[in-house]
Amino acid sequence: MISVAIAVALAQPPPKGWPLLNDISKRTFNYFVERSHPVTGFTKDRSRNFQEKDTDDHVVASIAAIGFALSAYAVGEHRGWMTRSEAIKVSRKTLKHMIEVAPKHRGWFYHWLNWETGKKEWDSELSTIDSAIFWCGMITNERALKDPEITRMSNQILKAVDWKFMLTNGGAKPNKKTLTMGWRPNQGFLAAEWNGYFESAMLYLLMLGSDESIPADTWKGFERKHFKGYGQEVLTGGPLFLHQMSHIFFDFKGKRDMMGYDYWVSSRNNTLAQIEYAKQNPKKFKAYGGGIWGLSACDVPDGYGAQGIFGDWGDNGTLAPPCAVASMMFTPTESLASAEAYVRLYPETYGKYSFVTGFNPSKGWVSKDMIGIDHGQMQLGIENARDGFPNKVFMTSPLVQRGMKRAGFRVTQEGPIEKRPLLIAPK
User: Fold this and answer.
1) How far is Cα 300 from Cα 342, in angstroms, rounded to an integer?
2) CATH 1.10.260.40 holds for 1-14+227-391
3) Is 287 helix (H, G, I), strand (E, B) or coil?
4) Which pLDDT tens digit goes with each residue over 18-64?
5) Is the dihedral of CA 135, 297, 324, 352 positive or negative?
6) Higher pLDDT, 55 or 404
7) Where in the chain is CATH 1.50.10.140?
8) What's the distance, Cα to Cα, between the start and end of the chain in Å?
9) What sign results for the dihedral spanned by CA atoms 183, 187, 188, 191?
10) Nearest CA to 212 among 143, 175, 250, 163?
11) What are phi and psi for residue 398, nearest 5 degrees?
12) pLDDT 10s digits, 117-133
């Protein structure tokens, strides 16, 4: 039975087709406007999705959500949801406070901040990947709005980054080819490395575009594991967000790198494999198939977890509706059908800011929250499928173009893009 709060959120039932996707993108935009602090501009990591009154008590912002807020303002101006002057004003405010208030070290930002004071929360680390998401959102914003003050602040932030600090562990490992995941002042560098093909592709490309003293073949430094199953050949497998995060910014479609990989093909294949997995439903969880699919990182009944197929990832029956929609840029027909299926069959997953982060139909459980990074990816996935706006503006950045060029990316002509192989080794 739908609760009163959910009924209020769905007082206007969402439409079908592209009008539904418009509704999702607009609700997501509203989240970034309404859940960014009016003074600092810092954006809450998560928010209640079904409150009848404005009682959301989350106070922790994430730098990744702040980056997605900046890209959302660019989308909002493009779509006519806010004026250019409004988008510039809120973007300037946010960047000003990221420069003057947000704690940082050697140009890298701490993962979690208090959305009001900017102080570090939860003994968080300097996060390499979350810094990268912030920078990508910032670049999207800067290239879209073309405001001189935003450009000045963006350049200031990017020029401050010490890439070798995170690549060489402060010089202690000068020959290391992979970036550490982070650093804490009281513990030093995290042991975990970005040593495989994950969402960190964006991180390496930003590094190559920013610091030309770093060898271009650093791009070859991380492992690319192949898996075959459910009718597809893929890299990595695992949660779908791994295969969406870099693509919502970087345009990999129709391109291969210095090693001969087509990462767009891999991400599309991963999505198709998940759809087929849901149809087969090997663990016999409730609801899987018929448009209901999507294993990723999200809230689960006992906390937070990451689900996926292939490799060491598992499936506990928890689905992440936003990740199915975020694959619009790879599988527009299937992702639209999924969005429609979720709101039709499980309206309790759709609230004030669109979809919840996690949903376990086998246990009758629905998260009360939505998460900023889920929705940022979902919005940009939709907008890339619509007219390619996020990819187009992001790819105009000279830094981004330089990073792609140094990694050997080139446009290829191989017939229908949907039939291209994952890897064609260079001759």
Assistant:
1) 17
2) no
3) coil
4) 899 999 999 999 999 999 999 999 999 999 888 655 567 789 999 99
5) negative
6) 404
7) 1-14+227-391, 35-221
8) 60
9) negative
10) 163
11) -60, -40
12) 999 999 899 999 999 99
Cα separation, 385 vs 391, whole angstroms: 10
Neighbours of 311 (CB within 10 A): 13
Which positions ≥6 away from 231 have C-beta within 8 Å?
272, 273, 276
- Asked if residues 335 and 268 have their Cβ atoms less than 8 Å apart, the reply is no
96 CB-near residues (< 8 Å, 6+ apart): 41, 153
State the maximum Cα–Cα separation within the chain, in Å, rounded to a whole number.
63
Residue 35's Cβ-side half-sphere holds a number of Cα atoms within 13 Å equal to 36
CATH number of 35-221: 1.50.10.140
The mean per-residue pLDDT over the stretch 201-213 comes to 98
Q: Per-residue DSSP letters for 64-102?
A: HHHHHHHHHHHHHHHHTSS-HHHHHHHHHHHHHHHHHTS
Cβ atoms within 10 Å, residue 328: 26
Quick one: which of 41, 25, 131, 160 has its CA closest to 91?
41
Q: Are 188 and 165 in contact (CB under 8 A)?
A: no
Provide the strand spans (E) within 190-339.
226-229, 232-235, 255-256, 297-300, 303-306
- DSSP 8-state code for residue 55: -
The CA–CA distances, whole Å, from 251 to 115, 119, 205, 393 equal 31, 35, 12, 10
Give the separation between CA 213 and CA 225, rounded to whole angstroms.
Answer: 28
Residue 394 contacts residue 250 (beta carbons within 8 Å): yes
- Using the Cα atoms of residue 237, residue 241, residue 247 and residue 250 in order, give the sign of their dihedral: negative
Tokens representing residue 280 in the block: 């087969």
Structure tokens at 97: 């406070």
Hunting for tokens 């929250």 — which residue is that? Answer: 369
Cα separation, 178 vs 220, in Å, equals: 9
* 338, 326 Cβ separation under 8 angstroms: no
What is the tens place of the pLDDT at every residue in 217-275?
A: 999 999 999 999 999 999 999 999 999 999 999 999 999 999 999 999 999 999 999 99
Phi, psi of 54 (to 5 degrees): -80, 75
